[in-house]
Amino acid sequence: MSVIEKLSIISDTITKLMNFVMNDELIKPDFDEYLTAVSSKNVQGSTLQAKIIPYIFERRLTENKKSIIQLYEERNSDLSSDEKDILQALKTSFASVFEVKRVLSSGFEFYNLVNEMMYKVLSLVKMNNFRGITPGQFALCRLFQMNNEYYLLEISNVISSANRDDVYKYAIAKIIEKPEEAYFQNQKKAEKIENIIIEFGKKFKDCFKTNEVITTNQYADNLINLYNDYCDYDILPDEDEIKENIKTVENNRFFTVEDFKNSYSNFMEKSLEGFSAHSSVYDIGIVYDNELGLFVMPFWQTFCKIYEVEDYKTIQGYKDCLKNFLENDKVPAQIIKRTAQKYPNFIKRTNEILETNYTLDELLNYYKPDSAEKKIYSSANVLYASKIFEQMMKVVSDKEDSPKIQEGIDYSKIGRNDKCPCGSGKKFKHCCMNKVQ
Question: What global pTM score does this model have?
Answer without folding.
Answer: 0.82
